[in-house]
UniProtKB/TrEMBL annotation:
Membrane-spanning parts: none
Domain HTH cro/C1-type positions: 13-85
Gene3D superfamilies cross-referenced by the UniProt entry: 3.30.450.180, lambda repressor-like DNA-binding domains
Protein name per Swiss-Prot or TrEMBL: Helix-turn-helix domain-containing protein
Organism for this UniProt entry: Microbispora catharanthi
Domain of life from the UniProt record: Bacteria
UniProt-listed Pfam families: HTH_31, MLTR_LBD
GO molecular function: DNA binding
Database matches in InterPro entries: Cro/C1-type_HTH (IPR001387), Lambda_DNA-bd_dom_sf (IPR010982), MLTR_LBD (IPR041413)
Length: 282
């Protein structure tokens, strides 16, 4: 059951949203003989499909159980925003139903941040490790990303289907098991996601190594780590790797690689300069 303080907060929240929603906005006739602003309690009850008495008890902070279906009805009737809907469920002590994952575009600010991080490699990934955006340093590190179709610009797909990744990552086997464990843990949170299902099916068909590792059911939690690279043009270097959640869209994660030592920073700078055009001589 919800505690007394939460019930009072829930009552106050419902009352505030009811009073801020005009009848016309709710599709009801306005009229001029209204003693209170916004909707009446009986109107909210009607729109939500509950009894007036029950809704009145809710606004009075009575100790009653509220189902998720009723909370959804109240959310629609009061035209709550996603943030307000989440607050309503929290006050009622009910778990917020999972919503289908929506791919939102990477914001211009985040793209600018990726560019600002140069010459340090960085990219933005989705829950199924699709590469949503990346800077030139990351493209130079992995190579050939711009030429790939969108569905193949995926960290897990590249790891298991691109032969060059096995030589780029010094300890490919360890890296593959670790990343696959993180991928599987993320997939468990969205078992019905069609993109994840399609990706796994494609990998099962394309890579016997993936089949073997996937059947072992690896599970890993993310942890910042040091990754060792052997780049065909920039040589050997080590980078610290971390991942940050994007607050404006928590399905997006910013992944950043930073040099461990001065020699690693020099290698990244050398990699960046390799693709710079040579200035022409007059």
């Amino acid at each position: 059951m919800v505690g007394m303080m939460r019930r009072k907060e829930l009552a106050g929240f419902l009352r505030s949203r009811r009073e801020s929603l005009g009848p016309e906005a709710a599709g009801l006739p306005g009229g001029s003989r209204r003693r209170t602003p916004g909707l009446r309690r009986e109107e909210v009850a009607q729109l939500s499909g509950v009894s007036v008495t029950w809704y009145t008890w809710l606004e009075q902070g009575r100790d009653i159980t509220v189902s998720r279906q009723v909370l959804e009805s109240l959310s629609r009737a009061l035209q709550l925003t996603p943030a307000e809907r989440g607050h309503l469920f929290a006050l009622a002590g009910a778990p917020l139903p999972a919503e289908p994952a929506r791919r939102m575009p990477v914001s211009p600010t985040l793209r600018t941040l990726l560019e600002t991080l140069e010459p340090n490699p960085a990219h933005v990934i989705s829950p199924c490790w699709d590469l949503l955006a990346y800077n030139r340093a990351y493209a130079d590190l992995v190579g050939g990303l711009d030429d790939l179709p969108e569905e193949e610009r995926n960290s897990v797909w590249l790891l298991f289907t691109r032969p060059g990744m096995r030589t780029l990552l010094v300890d490919w086997q360890c890296e593959a098991r670790d990343i696959l464990g993180q991928f599987r843990a993320a997939a468990d949170k969205n078992p019905d996601d069609p993109r994840t299902t399609a990706l796994v099916d494609a990998l099962l068909a394309a890579s016997p190594t993936f089949v073997s590792m996937w059947s072992a059911h690896p599970i890993r939690a993310f942890a910042s780590a040091t990754k060792h690279f052997d780049h065909p043009r920039a040589g050997r270097f080590s980078l610290n790797y971390t991942k940050l959640t994007v607050t404006e869209d928590v399905t997006q994660h910013l992944v950043v690689f930073l040099p461990v030592a001065e020699g690693d920073a020099t290698a990244l700078q050398r990699l960046a300069e390799l693709d710079r055009p040579v200035p022409s001589r007059a």
